Amino acid sequence: MAEGSFWPAMDLLRSEPMQLVQLIVPTESAHRTISYLGDLGLFQFKDLNPEKSPFQRTYAGQIKRCAEMARKLRFFKDQMKKAGLSPSTRNISTDDDLDNLEVKLGELESELMEINANDEKLRHTYSELLEYKLVLQKAGEFFNSAQSTAAAHQREFEAQNGGEGSMDSPLLLEQEMTTDPSKHVKLGFVSGLVPRDKAMAFERILFRATRGNVFLKQSVVENPVIDPGSGEQVEKNVFIVFYSGERAKNKILKICEAYGANRYPFTEDLGKQFQMITEVSGRLAELKTTIDVGKAHQSNLLQRIGFQIEQWTVLVKKEKSVYHTLNMLSIDVTKKCLVAEGWCPVYGTHQIQDTLQRARLDSSSQVGAIFQVLQTKELPPTYFRTNKFTSAYQEIVDAYGVAKYREANPGVFTIVTFPFLFAVMFGDWGHGICLMLATLYLIAMEKKYSTQKLGDILEMTFGGRYVILMMSIFSIYTGFIYNEFFSVPFELFGPSAYSCRDLSCKDAYTSGLVKVRDTYPFGVDPKWHGTRSELPFLNSMKMKMSILLGVAQMNLGIILSYFNAKFFSNNLNVRYQFVPQMIFLNSLFGYLSLLIIVKWSTGSQADLYHVMIYMFLSPAEDLGDNQLFFGQKYLQMLLLVLALVAVPWMLFPKPFLLKKQHEERLQGQSYTLLDNAEGNLEVESEPPTPHGHEEFEFSEVFVHQLIHTIEFVLGSVSNTASYLRLWALSLAHSELSSVFYDKVLLLAWGFNNTVILIIGIVVFVCATVGVLLIMETLSAFLHALRLHWVEFQNKFYEGDGYKFSPFSFTLLLSEEDEAA
């Protein structure tokens, strides 16, 4: 691509000149070199090993080590989060290299895992002992209650039968004395805890499995207990199951296991019960002390980790990215060096060379890296140097498509045109002030919010704070032009030029007002608001203003296509695209804009609709009262002929001339012309063939030009009509603001009631903020976005480039923070 040397250097008008560079780096200084280039952030590496999988590359082992260290750091962060600790914000310098850090992280992980394992065992034992204590207490209460009841029943029975014996007494006593003691039935029991939500099912299955040959007693535990198995708090019941026989016991044990019931031994001896409770309580106290000491040790360890975990995380991320980049380099085994290729801006040449020299000195390498520029026909990446003010506007343009290398960037003009077109639709200086105050708050809190993670909506709003600031400033300006402050007019720039015919103003809305002073100096006269002719006047003004702004911006787009063609020395596009497009657009809609200006200047009553329609239907017809200036009819005929000629001018010459150029190039007669038209041939022609020349399909080129011509001709009409959205949105905003003011605020004021007035003010504020300051702002923003993307940028902007993505630690860390 040829670049005109006479063009002034601008950071945003053209992307930065780029160059393809080859670096030959000695192996011993390769790591430090890549690391220093990452700090610089001006070199985009190309992958020279695309045929290799990630596992086949040279530094796959180092990347695996970095991934393992990153896992350990995530483990530490999870443990800190569980412990309620946060990483320290203090910057503690760390001199650890990757090997030392790997050893240190391994030791810390082992220590922390050992602490966690011991803590888990201790807590498991503590939970079991706590449950055992509950079983001892509840089961002991049951046995004590049962023995007391049995003793009372025995005393009552002896009191009733202690007198005269019955006839059966000797026989029963004799039977008892003759019965074999070994045949007495001995009942066993199982005790433990069962989850309360399973208690009913547990009781039913016990009854069914043993056919009712068990006795179950349950006691509710008032507070939830920590289950030893899951570690979660669970509401449980203490149970005791009495049974007879080994088969019943086996069934009960299996059912307990199935229902998650924890079993604990129990003795009937009261003395042993008391002794066991005392022992369990002592062990619980000891375990509690041990757990607290372990917790304190864990907390201290995590705090020590927290002081350096952020620095370690950054170090691991940097090292991993360095090895990823080293894997993109080609290794020359015989010469013990690495070969890198990539793009860098021309202005960064000296900085990169200084960085390579510094890396050689710091690594004590005997041989320095070699920096050499390569010649290539490959399209370079697009790189714009932006700041915090211009970056948001560039993002608006890039969302449509990244600029082709060195083509004119719409972002320069978007800085002014985007907020201005927004303000045309949002013209109210009261709303503009509210929007500006909110934006100034975001700018004032810039340092605080830039380091915080905000929500999606707030993050987007904060990122575009300077765009919104410009939108609010332009809204105040257009609000002064429309003379609207929450739909209320003010005499800011002097008294109104109009007045009533008499003091009563009875005929103000029938006969109208009379002009008593000079024209209102700036904007709409306040007397227009509220009159019977307000809507027709504002509609006419805003509609014509929308057409003027639209035609002006579309002309700007076509003019930028001329500068693109001249910059790339593409004379075909100048002669057969720029010239006929300018003629066609201005023969029709440029002429309409001229008529609007003449009508405003002369105060004529001509019907512009009639003029434009009959310019096509009856171009030779006399204009009559619709004539605005002498010779208008002949000018219209000339412009109509020019518009008709411009269509084939756009369509036919360019494809045939491209075909002629291609044929001459194949014959070796026009190498200079081919070089001049290089920018155009990149788009129109096919990729190189194996025979060493480019294929040229005339039919494809002709169809492409036909589509482009039809698109421009129809687009000129539709795009001009599309700019009428400026009028429609402005009218909607004004009418909504007027409705909220008249039907809410003034209506509440008319009741002469404080409560109703407060309610009216609250409703007015909520409606203004919710509808006008949020929804209308978003609506006007989207419409302004559409006007720039479709109506403006399609006149000159190809947007088929790709972004310059340098290897940069700053970008790497910021992207990962946003993803997190």
From TrEMBL:
One of its GO terms (cellular component) is vacuolar proton-transporting V-type ATPase, V0 domain. Its main location: membrane. InterPro entries: V-ATPase_116kDa_su, V-type_ATPase_116kDa_su_euka. One of its GO terms (molecular function) is ATPase binding. It is a multi-pass membrane protein. It is found in: Membrane. The chain crosses the membrane at residues 420-443, 464-482, 545-563, 583-602, 634-652, 755-775. GO terms for biological process: vacuolar acidification. Residues 91-125 form a coiled coil. Essential component of the vacuolar proton pump (V-ATPase), a multimeric enzyme that catalyzes the translocation of protons across the membranes. Required for assembly and activity of the V-ATPase. Belongs to the V-ATPase 116 kDa subunit family. This is V-type proton ATPase subunit a.
